[in-house]
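Long-time lurker, finally posting.

We've been working with Non-haem dioxygenase N-terminal domain-containing protein (Claviceps pazoutovae) and I want a structural starting point before designing mutants. I don't trust myself to interpret raw outputs, so I'm hoping someone here can both generate the structure tokens and explain anything notable. Sequence follows.
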Amino acid sequence: MNASPPAQKILHGFQTVGFIYLKNHPIPAHVLQRIFTRSANFFALDDETKLRLQWTTPEANRGYSSPGREKVSQLVDVSEVSKIRSQAPDLKESLEIGRDTRPQFPN
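Top reply, 14 upvotes:
Generated this for you. Predicted structure of Non-haem dioxygenase N-terminal domain-containing protein:
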């Protein structure tokens, strides 16, 4: 499948920088505000509530990830990854969601 030039640029941004900055999009400001408010409300919940939504499989990588749970690394040895995770944990928290049409990748 050949991707359109805009899709190629988006993919390039994710592959080389890790994120993109999307501007001049058609999403109304009130919709964006509602999304940011809902996001802030979720992350303001207590840890116990958020942890009930933690991801169950790294293959799907969907659900809540608490600070220190993940560590980006090229290492594959579990003990080495655990070691660097404890030395310098990734302090971000995230909530990854996706389509419900693939049961092998649960939300």
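Before you design anything, note these points.
Strands lie at 63-65, 94-96.
The CA atoms of residues 45 and 51 lie 10 Å apart.
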